[in-house]
Amino acid sequence: MAVSLSNNAVKLYSLSTGQYLGECRGHTSTVNEIAFADFSSPHLLQSCSSDGTLRAWDTRTFQQVSFINAGSSEEIFSFSFSGESNLLAAGCKSQNSVKCSKLQVLLWDWRNKKQVACLEESHIEDVTQVRFIPGTQNKLLSASVDGLMCIFDTTGDINDDDHLLSVINVGTSIGKIGFFGHDYQKLWCLTHIETLSIWDWKEEKLEADFQEARSLASDGWTRDHVLFPAFFSTYDYTALF
């Protein structure tokens, strides 16, 4: 189990015993997202930060094994690896000056760490989430504080004009997204005001809208069993259905 801290470190614990194992240090600003790699690389932990970097760590040695620097003016809020290609996507904000910022989805070929695309015309506020859609041929979904979810085709020479497939308007600032269901056609979206909506992303259709997501998720809880309420955003929302 990995936990990011306010001192920019990532600490690791045994999931079975809770024992502290060690920590990974290198980020110089807020760590915004962490994720373990797939089952083929069980000892690889990945992270992104407001320091403009994406890093990979070996959890056996707690040492950095890979590093991508998007630039000192970038803040990286989210990242996702494609299961169908060699692409790595990141949701960013580029702060060029005090009054000028660009909201971007950046893509790299993770093998050679070469940036292959910069999408900056689809969102007007911070890109809070990027996720490659499981089981699809290189489709990427981005979500933003502007309330929009954009779906891109990431094959070929990627650009905003030709590769933006569809836009879903949630109507309020988006915090987290995820996929579930048969062929991962269903999409859940948690907003910063803690509403939860369910979408068929292929049809761009709203299927359910829960205005009181926190109370629905916690109806069966008692005070004795709620140990880590701060982890609400990682709740398995598929359990509601």
How many helices in DSSP terms?
A: 2
Question: How helix-rich are the residues, as a percent range?
Answer: under 10%
What is the CA-CA span between the terminal residues? 27 Å
- Under CATH, the topology can be stated as Methylamine Dehydrogenase, Chain H
Task: Give a nutshell description of this structure.
WD repeats lie at residues 24-67. InterPro entries: WD40/YVTN_repeat-like_dom_sf (IPR015943), WD40_repeat_dom_sf (IPR036322), WD40_rpt (IPR001680), WDR89 (IPR039328). The protein has helices spanning 160-163, 213-218; strands at residues 2-4, 10-13, 20-24, 31-36, 44-49, 53-58, 63-69, 74-81, 87-95, 101-109, 114-119, 127-132, 139-144, 148-153, 164-169, 174-180, 186-191, 196-200, 205-210.
Characterise the protein shown here:
By secondary structure, the chain is mainly beta. It has one domain (70-240): Methylamine Dehydrogenase, Chain H, CATH 2.130.10.10. The chain has 2 helices and 19 strands. The protein has helices at residues 160-163, 213-218; strands at 2-4, 10-13, 20-24, 31-36, 44-49, 53-58, 63-69, 74-81, 87-95, 101-109, 114-119, 127-132, 139-144, 148-153, 164-169, 174-180, 186-191, 196-200, 205-210. The strands form 5 sheets. A 4-stranded antiparallel β-sheet has the order 4-5-6-7, with no helix packed on it. Strands 8-9-10-11 form a 4-stranded antiparallel β-sheet, with no helix packed on it. Strand 10 and strand 11 form a beta hairpin. The longest helix is centred in the last third of the chain and has 6 residues, at 213-218. The radius of gyration is 18 Å and the shape is globular.
